Amino acid sequence: MDLATLIGLVGAAVLVSAAVILGTSPEVFMNPTGLLLVVGGSLFVVLAKFSLTQFRFAFKAVARAFKFQLPNTQESIEELVELSKISRKRGLLALEDQEVSSPFLQKGLQMLADGFSAEMISEMMGKERLLTLERNEAGGQVFSAFGEVAPSMGMIGTLVGLVQMLANMNEPSMIGPAMAVALLTTLYGAMIATMVANPIAEKLWLRMNQEAKMQQLWIDAVLAIKGDKNPRVLEQMLNIYLPPERRGKEDEASAEGATKPAGEQA
C-alpha cells in the first residue's frame, strides 16, 4: 500500500470537510443538479476523447496509485546477481526452474534457457516493454483529461446557473437554487480536478516510469547473463539504476567484498 497517496488524498478530503462542517451546515454544499452536471458531464466528455477499452483500463488502473507491487531495485539487483552466478555454475538451462519476482523477468529467463540469441531477446523484451508502456499510459492520459475537463464543466454549470438566475429575477424563490448551482458547480469541478483526478494521474505517470525503468534493468541483466558477464561486473553495471546516494555505498561494499581474503569473506 502506498501510504503517500492514501494520506495525501484522505488528508485533503478531511481538511476540506472540516472547513465545511465548521463553517456552516454541510447540506448547503450538496447540490444533486450540480454534481450530476460536473461528474456526469466530465465522464462523458472524457469518454469521447478515448476508446471504451482505454476508459475501462484507466479506472482499473486506479488501484496502481494506491497499491503497487514492483520489486525493490536493490533487492532485484541482488536477485539478478544470484541468477548470474547460477548461470555461470550450472549453465543457462538452470535458470528455467528459478522462481523470480516478475513475470517479465521470468519470460527473459525462459528465452535464455531456450537458447534465443541476444538480438532476439533484446527485440522481444523491448517490444513487450513498449506495449506495457502504452497500456499504462492510457490510465495517466484519461485522468489527466479528467483533471482538465472537470473545472471546465464546473464553469459551464456556473454559466447555466447564472442564466437561470437572471431569467427568474422576478421570482425570488428561484434565485437561491440557481445561484447555488452557479457557485457549487465551480467548487465541484475544482475539487475533482485538484483533489482526485490530477493526483491520481501524476501517480499513474510515476508508476509507469518506475515500471519502465525496472523492465529496462531486467533487459540489461538478461542480456548480460546471455553474454556471460562476471556477476561482479553485472552488479556494478546495474548499480547505475540506484539513486546516487545509495550507489556509492553499494559500490564500496562490493569492492570490499572483492578485496577480502577468502577466509574473511566466509
Question: What can you tell me about this protein's structure?
Answer:
Helices cover 81% and strands 0% of the residues. The chain has two domains: 1-30, no CATH class; 31-243, no CATH class. Residues 255-266 have low confidence and may be disordered. The chain has helices spanning 3-23, 32-49, 52-60, 62-66, 73-90, 103-113, 118-167, 172-226, 231-238, 244-259, 262-265. The chain is mainly alpha-helical and 266 residues long. The chain is built from eleven helices and no strands. Helix 1 packs antiparallel against helix 8, helix 2 runs antiparallel to helix 7 (118-167) and helix 7 packs antiparallel against helix 8 (172-226).
Query: Averaging pLDDT over every residue, what do you get?
Result: 84
Uncertain runs are 255-266
* H and E string: HHHHHHHHHHH
Structural class: mainly alpha
Q: Specify the overall morphology.
A: elongated
Number of helices: 11
How many E-type strands? 0
For the biggest sheet, the summary is: none
- Whole-angstrom Rg: 27 Å
Separation of the first and last Cα atoms: 38 Å
- Domain module count: 2
Strand content: under 5%
Q: Report the helical percentage.
A: over 70%
Family: Belongs to the MotA family.
Domain MotA/TolQ/ExbB proton channel: 98-213
Region (Disordered): 245-266
Subcellular location: Cell membrane
